Amino acid sequence: MRRLEQTQAQYRSLRLYATAKQLAQLLSQAEANELSHLDFAGQIAQHELGERTRSRIIRHLKQAQLPAHKLLEAFDYRHQTTITKRQVNALLDFGFIDQRQNLIFIGQPGVGKTHLAIGIALKAIEAGYKVLFRTALALVQDLELAEMKGELKKRLSQLAKYDVLVIDELGYLPMTKQSRYNLFQLINSLYEYRSIILTTNKDFTNWGEFFHDDAVAVPIIDRVIHHSHIFMLGGESYRLKQKTTT
């Protein structure tokens, strides 16, 4: 038993914490299956890597602050026929993240924009990317508070540490002049550096309505759509349909 404890301590000093914790069980399994030394070494490596991956996913899920756990597998393509499962699956090699491209989902409330954004974000986290979810309103308030404290540049740097920033529900509320400036600063800092997944209820020709300033809307649109995949979602509200059929 003392030899086991000493070996566990050595694994912990090497920061192989998962192996140290499960060493007794791993040894028992190896003896029961009569594993070779090489197979046992592989089992330890596989166990440690698996536990590190699981811990990373849990940590990144917490950091992402997703408002719900909406799986892509649960998305109803029969109801939302303006986007196909093949189109969505084509995004899951995450080339758009590696190439610093954006995803934009445009459509009326209830047609599945947020579900798709969260579902893709979950897959990205599983693949090892860091994601942060913010509604447009919460993001604008966050930036405004940072600007008031004289910490806008610092906050922009913090947001740029994520591989993907999900901005949900842009366009539902008008913005003040300062909010427009702050958002432009954010979009500009992420341009060709990080990816954005954006959901909005307005097509680009109407962005001036909630920005109240085409001089601000145009450069933001230019940076958002320059490297992007744009999906126009049609149909009636899925939530409304569910309510009227119950």
Please provide the ordered H/E string of secondary-structure elements. Answer: HHHHHEHEHHEHEHHEH
Poorly predicted regions are none
Q: What would CATH call the homologous superfamily of the largest domain?
A: P-loop containing nucleotide triphosphate hydrolases
Strand content: 5-15%
Helix content: 55-70%
**Structural class category:** alpha/beta
Determine and state the CATH class of the largest domain: Alpha Beta
Give the domain tally: 2
Oligomer type: single chain
**Largest sheet, if any?**
5 strands, parallel
Count the E strands. Answer: 5
The general outline is elongated
The count of helical stretches stands at: 12
Average per-residue pLDDT, rounded, comes to: 87
Task: Write down the Rg.
Answer: 23 Å
CATH topology of the largest domain: Rossmann fold
What separation lies between the terminal Cα atoms? Answer: 62 Å
Describe this entry's structure for a reader:
This protein is an alpha/beta fold and 246 residues long. It folds into 2 domains: 2-63, no CATH class; 72-244, P-loop containing nucleotide triphosphate hydrolases (Rossmann fold, 3-Layer(aba) Sandwich). Helix content is 56%, strand content 11%. It has 12 helices and 5 strands. The chain has helices spanning 2-13, 17-32, 37-64, 85-89, 95-98, 113-126, 136-148, 152-159, 177-190, 207-211, 214-225, 238-244; strands at 102-106, 131-135, 164-170, 195-200, 228-232. It has a 5-stranded parallel sheet with strand order 2-3-4-1-5. α9 (177-190) links the parallel β3 and β4 (195-200). α7 packs across α9 (177-190) and α9 runs parallel beside α11. It is elongated, with a radius of gyration of 23 Å. The mean pLDDT is 87.
